[in-house]
Amino acid sequence: MSTELTPKQQINELVRNANSILLLTHAHPDGDAMGSVLALKMGLEKLGKQVTAAIDGNIPEVLNFLPQFASVQKELSFQKDLLIILDENQAKVGNITLRRVSDTKLMVVVSPKDGVLTASDVRIEEGSFNTDLVIVLDCTDLDRIGNFYQQNSDLFYEVPVVNIDHHSTNVNFGKVNIVDVTASSTAEILVSLLETLGKDTPGLIDPQIATCLLTGIITDTNSFQNSNTTPKSLTVAAQMVAAGAEQQEIIRRIYMTRSLSQLRLWGRALAYIKEDTQYHFAWTNLSKADFVAAQAPMSDGPQGVIDDLLKTAEGMDFVVLLYERDGGVKGSFRSINPTVNVATLAALFNGGGHPQAAAFSIENATVAQKEQEILGKIRAHLSGKSFTLPQDTELHEEPAAQQQIEMPIQQIEPREPRRQERQPAQPSQQRRPQDRPPREPNRQRTAEQGQSLPPLTEA
Question: What DSSP designation does 38 have?
């Protein structure tokens, strides 16, 4: 009786039989996605495989300390052989030669050994891709890979695809799937997989690979502060430190290093912060103009401001950051009250994540166009009502707070401080503890208690 192979054993067989392997993850990667890709790339190369790692979109420069950071490709060209098939039923082929007709044309000359060859005896077909195996990491579905999937969708049907992830919303798109929703990160899953792949290669997880894996675990647990931190994730993290991972360097680069442009951008986000006293949440936004004014590259996502500052807001159940990137609007949620499941809020906009951190994207839009619609849907969901956008809502106008704070970059430089008068905030946006309505002790929550869902990558 044959025993069915486990997913890990199936991956081991696919890797063993493959020569050329392509590694992909979601566009605009976070620390877990980037760390996982680089760790698996180095591990497979130590096993003698030819590995290409490619990521669509901007890669945060804060991760440039990771080993082989520069080896990740941002463009891919998939090649196929062109097959010329000759039917020898009527005549045997004697000789095949190539003859150059011009600088841009080659002629294939087929000389029969006997008999007569005609055009009907020749058939031209496309060969297979020059990739034996595709491994997709930290991705809930193929669309999140970005342009690499959209422009080369045939590849994912003709070549075996392995799907390794830790999000509960994963659609199991691979030929082989390892989706562990109890894992803190994809990097945590890769530790045991690399041990399986390298069972005959002692010391496969070296200090460089361990550093990449530990980066993934640390960033997805927010330095072990998020609720997805488990005894296993702590144990695996300790294992990586024992293997030589540079834990202190990871902390310094991820949490202790901020560029001046990032700090300026954070300052603008804090200046625009508003609150909803009825539903107990705060939000802020950043337009493309804010990135320009702060001299902050669009590749540097502003998620740090929500994790390091907004998430500390007292009395709020959750916080929301809206910002513009790639011609669209990105939204990040962070839960402060552990009973509030922000993944259900992100799902309102076809996003996802886990109860404490989630995100979404809206294409071809600006914050000015979508802010009120987004806030309206959030409030409607919290109140249990349906949302209808008012017909007279002027979505093309800049938000009032943002109009008041616009200033050229020189006005926010530390050496040229200038204060700009601002109109007082509307009463509904002012934070006066005496005006705040008491919370209802039995207020309905949206959290799914006890469910461990890892965060969305760009949350």
Answer: H
> CB atoms < 10 A from the CB of 376, how many?
15
Instruction: State whether the Cα torsion 217-220-224-226 is positive or negative.
Output: negative
Q: Give residue for tokens 């192979």.
A: 5
| Residue pLDDT, tens place only, 243-275 | 999 999 999 999 988 889 989 999 999 999 999
Token couple for 101: 């007709």
136, HSE (Cβ side, Cα atoms, 13 Å): 29
What sign for the dihedral angle of Cα 92, 95, 99, 105?
positive
With beta carbons less than 8 A apart as the criterion, state whether 124 and 83 touch.
yes
Tell me how far apart the alpha carbons of residues 340 and 152 are, in angstroms, rounded to a whole number.
Answer: 39
Which residues sit opposite 360 in a β-bridge?
331
Can you give the pTM of this predicted structure? 0.74
How is residue 297 annotated by DSSP? -
Across the beta sheet with 274-276, what order do the strands follow? 274-276, 281-286, 318-325, 328-335, 357-362, 352-354
DSSP state of 73: B
Q: Is 7-77+131-254 a domain of CATH 3.90.1640.10?
A: yes
Is the distance from CB of 161 to CB of 11 less than 8 angstroms? no
**7-77+131-254 against 260-435: fold identical:** no
Burial class, 447, CB count within 10 angstroms (exposed 0-12 / middle 13-18 / buried 19+): middle
Q: Tell me, what amino acid is at 365?
A: A
Q: How confident is the model over 283-315, as pLDDT tens digits?
A: 999 999 999 999 988 766 687 888 888 888 999
Distances (CA, A) of 5 to 10, 11, 80, 175, 196: 6, 10, 31, 13, 13
CB atoms within 10 A of CB 132: 18
Find out whether 154 and 35 touch, Cβ atoms under 8 Å: no
Q: For the domain 260-435, what is the CATH code?
A: 3.10.310.30
State the CB neighbour count (10 A cutoff) for residue 95: 9
The residues spanned by each domain of the chain are 7-77+131-254, 81-128, 260-435
Query: Measured between alpha carbons, how far is 147 from 88 in angstroms, rounded to an integer?
Result: 42
Query: 3-class DSSP state for residue 222?
Result: coil
